[in-house]
Amino acid sequence: EEIVAFPLYVEAIRFAFHEEGMIRTAVRALTLNIYHVGDIYVNKYIATTPHDNYFLNLVKFFRDRCISLNGLVSPTTESQGPESTSKILSAVDEIEDNLYYFSDVVSAGIPDVGTLITDSMLKILIFPMLLPSLRTEVSDVKKFSSVTSLYLLCCILRILKIKDLANTVAAALICSVESFLPNFEAKRLNGFKADHDEESHVDEESHADDEKLSETLDSSSMIISIPSLSTSSSVQHNCLHSASVLRDALISYITSGDDMQVVGSLSVLATFLQTKELDESMLDALGILPQRKQHKKLLLKALVGEDTGEEQLFASENCTSKDGGDGELNIYLQRLKVLDALIGLFCRTSISADALWDGGWLLRQLLPYSETEFNAHHLQSLKDSFTKRCNQLVEEQRGSWPDLLIQVLCDEWRKCKRAIEASSPRKEPKSILFPTKKSSSSDVMPAESSFAAGETMYERVKVFVLLHQLQVFSAGRSLPDQPPILPPAAFPEISRAKSAGLNTIGPKLSTELHLVDAVPCRIAFERGKERHFSFLAVSMGISGWILLVEEWPQKPNYGTVRVIAPLAGCNPKIDERHARWLHLRIRPSNLPLTETAKNAANLKLRSKSLVDGRWTLAFKDEASCRSALTMVQEEIDLQCKEVERRLKPLLSAEI
């Protein structure tokens, strides 16, 4: 028996690309129910012409969504406002929904449909549009920005778990394209266009290609052959001795790309690494076969009596022929090139901490056990970069946020250890599309702002923690759960805090204090409402406060705490014209890291609230003003010295 007509299905797919999203969702739900029935006659009807054109049109529809996303991303990579961010997220959701639908269709197991979707995806989108856009050279052949292409490749490979698709994309990165692509795809991939395409635009080219594909693609003949790296010496030569422009482009983005390109390239490599459908020979040729799999492969070879001795150190299962020495050497060199790129990434100063953490995760995946593949140059580069980060952290010990420095260090140490030891990357692919630049709020807050200083401190700590952990890792040791920081010192018997009657908890509002070291002053928090206080600066360990105390008339030299502000970052300065005035910058007690570190667009909405307070204290004479200034400086010095003491083991050059 054969199905001659299936009106429900035919009518449903007519509305598959309706402008209303709910209608498209209903059509997809209906078609998936039909595909999963499992009837051989229904499957045959669905997979034969003209009904199989539905799947080709699905890929074209998906390609159009990708083009729309690229239009949103490309002009907004530098600065994304809330509106553009919302549009990008909406487009990303639609693209991922489409891919999950493709995945559900393929999982139904209808003969030839999986092949049809795979080959249509390759010939309509990946070969002519995504892969050429990875090239670092400026070319009018590029249809997408490199960032969009990197994101789409990650998404497609993560969601569409198809063996042929994953291996073909990997082969396109490592082999000469002529060995497995038709001529017109090969020309486009290498950066050239056919003569009749020279003056056409994206839409015209897409339309011409659609017509050509509609005529030539069918479910029974669409097979793209992946060259076997283990059987053909000529293919081995083409793959391992070719320019490998696309593979090298990924490495180039890591070593010299901007922040988004670095994250994108690392995400693509991480995606390949986690794609179970990808052959290990492809991972080896890409230079990202994990060390544990290399060791397992060498052990198996030794057990079956293949190559022995040190020749096995860098051998690859895709280069087992007797004359495959060049292949073995080139695979080793590619692996070394990836490692060189990652080490070089950790030495770059213009890349965000988040991007560097992604690189740290990839390095731990490739070399999970020991330092055996780090050469002297790698170790020296890591040490030099770590020394620079140590110097930056030394600056932060006397910066605007020393009181929070140890807390942030401990928090980020745990987060970094968890991130680089995780089984999968900590971020979704869509993070590629959003800038994570250092000082993302620089256009919102002035450079002298304590918030800008706090953001810088936060970035420096994250990078320092990563490099410290890489130093430990490169030495072949396991990472401790906590950084090596000394415990707090005992509460000193002689100090302004002790003289004022403070306990180890610190000052609280309405606390009674002894005003033995306080200096009388005046300040107006509202126009025309001047108030009299006693000014006192105190420190206890790594904490410190500026206190305004209201003296009791009935009990001289004692008073109640009315105002408390952080001591660190107050930047005391006597007014140039009025020597009795002391200016103080008042920063918040806690740094709003969630707003400053995550999204500059949200930060701009709150820019007015991220402003430091300013106090101007008036003293009775110049001597009193200088006395108050000296008191603040001395307490800040005590506070910073305690931070330095506790962090001394962490900043030691010997790890």
TrEMBL record:
One Pfam family of this chain: FPL
GO annotation terms (biological process): endosomal transport; regulation of autophagosome maturation; vacuolar transport
Entry's Gene Ontology cellular component terms: Golgi apparatus; late endosome
Domain FPL intervals: 3-35
Protein name: FPL domain-containing protein
Organism the protein comes from: Ambrosia artemisiifolia (Common ragweed)
